[in-house]
Design goal:
two-stranded antiparallel sheet; 3 helices; 23% strand; disordered N terminus
């Protein structure tokens, strides 16, 4: 397998072969951490199954000496590029498949993937925009392959990047480490009561502060560049975007939820689908870099949805 990570055009396959092979995903790129297996014995059930999550959530919730929930761990949530499958066989020619993969076959089914759905006023799981901005969303959706900077190896932004793969925590701050499809990213979130800094320019992952509410870490992020989207299909935002993430430790799991507020363009706050993280005994390694090798091979602008 190539040492280069497939670009996010793996999320926008447009009737053409992806020539980049995939790097390994979180959990795939990680090496076992032998010291933690005794502390976190494996739970019953398939990885990420309801049975496994129920068993992990039933364990005691650990706390630090100051009473805060202990979030220090590597966290699994089936993220990364595990949905991209490298195809094998003489007819595959080094291609990869995302949806409709034929077992042992050369790739997806013969039918060309349809473009993502044009958003109506809103759809379940999609941000609800004010009526005057629907035409812009539709235009960006139809031109996602050309306009989505994430597909050009840029950082995904918040909340699109989702929960971290590792959390490092002390009395003053928490650090989020990401093993993302587009590469390795980090966020440093103060938790010592300080306010947002007024002197920082907008960035892809913004400027965040955190606070604790019982067993929940609440992270509020501002100063986000408007180069990123909230999710696929043209879900743009302004620089006034404010994202609130909640990390609630329950046993050896974290319940993750994120809400985006951008009243200039959104009719109401956008709540992402909540997800569960669970303690992993695998440690992170430096991922391969994201390298775009796809745009020159695009045949049309059709693309599939984001399975993440």
């Amino acid at each position: 397998m190539s040492t280069h990570r497939a670009s996010r055009l793996g999320l926008a396959v447009a009737g053409a072969l992806l020539l980049a092979a995939c790097g390994s995903a979180p959990g795939g790129s990680a090496s076992p951490a032998p010291a933690t297996s005794a502390q976190h014995p494996p739970a019953l059930g398939e990885r990420g199954s309801a049975e496994q999550l129920k068993a992990l959530a039933a364990r005691p919730t650990p706390h630090l000496s100051d009473g805060r929930p202990d979030l220090n761990a590597t966290w699994d949530h089936l993220g990364g590029i595990e949905f991209i499958r490298v195809q094998k066989g003489p007819a595959a020619e080094g291609s990869v498949c995302v949806f409709g993969c034929e077992p042992g076959g050369p790739g997806a089914s013969a039918a060309r993937p349809a473009a993502g759905p044009a958003p109506a006023s809103y759809e379940p799981g999609f941000p609800e925009y004010k009526p005057e901005f629907l035409a812009r969303v539709k235009d960006l959706n139809e031109r996602q392959v050309q306009t989505d900077t994430l597909l050009q190896c840029a950082p995904p932004g918040v909340p699109r990047i989702g929960p971290p793969a590792k959390i490092i925590q002390n009395a003053r701050e928490v650090v989020f480490l990401y093993d993302d499809v587009n590469g390795a990213f980090f966020r440093i979130i103060p938790t010592d009561g300080r306010e947002h800094r007024p002197d920082v320019p907008p960035t892809y992952l913004g400027e965040a502060v955190g606070r604790y509410e019982g067993d929940t870490l609440v992270v509020v992020t501002r100063n986000l560049t408007d180069d990123t989207w909230l999710t696929d299909n043209g879900a743009f935002h302004t620089r006034d975007l404010v994202v609130t993430e909640r990390f609630t430790r329950v046993g050896d799991t974290i319940q993750y939820a994120a809400t985006a507020e951008d009243p200039a363009v959104l009719a109401k706050p956008y709540a992402m689908t909540p997800t569960s993280l669970w303690v992993s005994d695998r440690e992170l390694e430096e991922p391969a870099r994201c390298e775009d090798r796809d745009l020159s091979h695009m045949v049309d602008g059709s693309f599939h949805g984001n399975p993440r």
